[in-house]
Write a structure and sequence with these properties.
- With 242 residues, the protein is an alpha/beta fold.
- It has eight helices and 15 strands.
- It is elongated and about 60 Å long.
- It starts with a strand and ends with a helix.
């Protein structure tokens, strides 16, 4: 597949649109064409532009995503993005590619895109890393973490390390510490492997922010982070030793 998949986001929540826009920007196979807040806007965009894939919310003003999908041409692929699980059967009866429940993890988003690629061209697949590897692109990449009752934006370039606190994680950045309800393995799957490295069952470090390292520990901004015995080979492979 040489041409990019042209994507439209339809969601009445600005934050939800921003998250999907960010995810799309991290995958070379996808091209973000437009975002809109309701089905009427989406209809006008589809009329004017060639859209291959729609990320479609369900609960929207005036026309629901389910009703909107019923009127789409069969060639347009749809992935539902919704906070409600009640409509899953309806979605698949209408042959939607996938049904993503908010908040949407990047790793789960990638699985949906692989379904799209298999549908369009069985020779293509993508892995669970950020596909745009240019440094200029990486500077703008961010994730959202749920902190108390808000979704906090965190730019990956600002992260020093991530520490596991049982069912929570502590994210140390250049300006603050963030405690979020999330497992360290879940956050690990959303991070680019060229930029982040799991060095211990309780620690993920940002490779670019390493000040010094040895076979048993890594120093970042004055903190000495242990290298777990089970992680030493992978750390050695990535960083090398003197």
């Amino acid at each position: 597949m040489n041409t990019k998949i042209k994507c439209l986001i339809v969601d009445d929540e600005p934050l939800a649109r921003e998250i999907i826009e960010n995810y799309i920007s991290r995958i070379n196979h996808l091209e973000h064409i437009a975002s809109c807040a309701n089905a009427l806007e989406a209809f006008n965009i589809i009329t004017d532009k060639n859209i291959d894939l729609i990320f479609l919310d369900i609960q929207m003003p005036e026309v629901t995503g389910i009703d909107f999908l019923k009127d789409l041409t069969p060639s347009t692929q749809v992935i539902f993005t919704t906070a409600y699980s009640d409509y899953a059967v309806d979605a698949f009866n209408l042959e939607a590619i996938d049904y993503l429940l908010k908040p949407i993890e990047f790793s789960r988003f990638l699985k949906s895109i692989n379904k799209v690629l298999k549908h369009l061209d069985t020779t293509n697949n993508i892995d669970s890393t950020i596909s745009n590897t240019e440094e200029s692109d990486y500077q703008d990449v961010f994730i959202y973490l749920k902190v108390e009752k808000k979704m906090q934006k965190i730019f990956l370039k600002d992260i020093f390390y991530i520490e596991s606190l049982k069912n929570y994680i502590k994210v140390k950045t250049s300006e603050r510490e963030i405690i979020a309800y999330k497992g360290i393995s879940n956050i690990e799957s959303t991070l680019p492997s060229k930029k982040f490295l799991r060095v211990h069952r309780s620690f993920i470090i940002a490779i670019d922010n390493i000040d010094a390292f040895s076979p048993t520990e890594i120093e970042i901004k004055g903190l000495k982070i242990p290298v777990g015995r089970n992680y030493r080979e992978s750390v050695k492979e990535i960083l090398g030793y003197f």
